[in-house]
Amino acid sequence: MSDASVLSAAHAAAPPLRWAMPRPILAIVAALIAAAAAALAVPDAATAANAQSDAELVLLLRFMAGVKAVLALAALGAVVWRLGYAASPFLSAVYLLAPALMVAAPVLIWQIAPTALGAGLFHGGLALLLLALFADRGQTSELVRHTLLARHTA
Fold first, then answer.
1. Phi/psi of residue 4, each to 5°?
2. Cβ–Cβ under 8 Å, residues 108 and 44
3. Is the pLDDT of residue 85 over 80?
4. What is the pTM for the complete model shown?
């Protein structure tokens, strides 16, 4: 018996990975951890001084942060719903990471901390979410159709 056949036999006999916590709860916990980490970011002295001198810019950035927060919470809700159904481990990890990045971004922008970092986190999380949805498009569209039919018949 070769090493390759022993390896594949052991791999086939191993039980599938189990999450210690339900995946929807993990998505919420990841988002809360990301938001807490972003809340700990402190703007540098130059950014804080610039923010003090331009109240209209602060108002605009905080409005943007509010809009991004609404979008991030909607993405988190969609991911929590999606992770309630079976998904591959890779897609599950991407689904966990995407809204966490999106939730951290408005916190950074609201604090007038590094706004470029906040924008990068938000758009990076959005891109990850869209890529995950594209990779999972057959399964997700079938789940949406099934859910809508179940609610329509109820």
1. -65, -40
2. no
3. yes
4. 0.76
Contact (Cβ atoms closer than 8 angstroms) between residue 43 and residue 111 = yes
Helix 55-82 and helix 45-53: axis angle, to 10°? 110
- The yes-or-no verdict on residue 24 having pLDDT over 90 is no
At residue 96's C-alpha, the angle toward residues 91 and 97, to 5°, is: 100
Which residue is associated with the tokens 């999450």? 19
CA 85 to the chain's CA centroid: 17
Q: How far apart are CA 146 and CA 81, in angstroms?
A: 13
Q: Which residue has the tokens 């929807």?
A: 24
pLDDT for 42 equals 73
Q: Write down the residue that tokens 């036999």 correspond to.
A: 9
How far apart CA 52 and CA 116 sit, in angstroms, is: 18
